[in-house]
């Protein structure tokens, strides 16, 4: 059983799995964040792959909503829960996440991104 321990996402001083999960828990339903954005917020902008590993080994889904993390271009990658990528997409649709009209397999980050483009730089 996963033991939940509250960590204020802004109080941790260095990049860690716990900090990544704490920040991810602040992403509201209907919004997504990219692996790179989450890594940057957690203190290491070069740790997007580590964030991917943390999502893949998330012991506390759906409380820690790893399905809300997408690639930089809005595409869906890796979902270790039952149903794979298609289930990830269905979860996001049920939450109200908008997908692009050109490619229905990509999230419209302008509409459903947690951070604005200016915050991503």
How do you describe this structure in short?
The chain has helices at 17-24, 35-41, 48-56, 84-95, 109-112, and strands at residues 33-34, 69-70.
Structure notes:
The protein is mostly helical and 121 residues long. The protein contains 5 helices and 2 strands, in the order αβααβαα. Strands 1-2 form a two-stranded parallel sheet. α2 crosses α3.
How many domains in all? 1
- The value of Rg in angstroms is 14 Å
Envelope shape: globular
Please state the structural category. Answer: mainly alpha
CATH superfamily: Winged helix-like DNA-binding domain superfamily/Winged helix DNA-binding domain
What's the order of the H and E elements?
A: HEHHEHH
Oligomeric status: single chain
Structure summary, number of beta strands: 2
Helical residue percent?
Answer: 25-40%
Strand arrangement, largest sheet?
Answer: 1-2
* Total helical segments: 5
